[in-house]
Specification:
Radius of gyration: 17 Å
Largest sheet: none
Helix content: over 70%
Distance between the termini: 46 Å
Mean pLDDT: 80
Number of helices: 5
Low-confidence stretches: none
Strand content: under 5%
Structural class: mainly alpha
């Protein structure tokens, strides 16, 4: 399997989105949308690794929007990119397994991919519950 090539490409694209947003748009967006950015900033910057990993493991959402939001916020690059790389692994494997499972004799790959998708979503929910303050 060459899923690792896809993973490297995802991390590289994530890094480029993050850097572009930080270098080009951060000052402008802070001036225009400071209050809205404050919510994103407090969510990501407080625990950047855990928040990013949780968001990456969820089966819904937009990778490019998260990359750009992180670049526009004050989140540190290394924790964001490290959590992104780890969080991309399950989805990359799921897509690789689904791709291999599309042949008629590879139904087990579809089942394995589905199980990994469910496990990834469950882990994301667990991280979300742990990150929420107790009521």
């Amino acid at each position: 399997m060459v899923w690792h090539i896809a993973l490297v490409a995802q991390v590289l694209a994530c890094s480029l989105d993050f850097i572009w947003a930080r270098a080009i748009g951060q000052d402008f967006v802070r001036r225009r949308f400071g209050k809205m950015l404050g919510k994103v900033d407090s969510t990501l910057a407080g625990q950047p690794f855990t928040a990013t990993l949780m968001l990456r493991l969820m089966p819904v959402g937009s990778n490019i929007l998260l990359n750009l939001a992180a670049g526009l916020s004050s989140v540190r690059a290394i924790p964001f990119l490290a959590a992104s790389a780890i969080g991309f692994v399950p989805q990359t494997l799921v897509f690789a397994l689904f791709g291999q499972g599309s042949a008629p004799s590879h139904e087990h790959m579809l089942l394995l991919g589905s199980a990994m998708l469910a496990a990834s979503a469950l882990l994301g929910v667990i991280l979300l519950r742990r990150a929420r303050p107790a009521a």
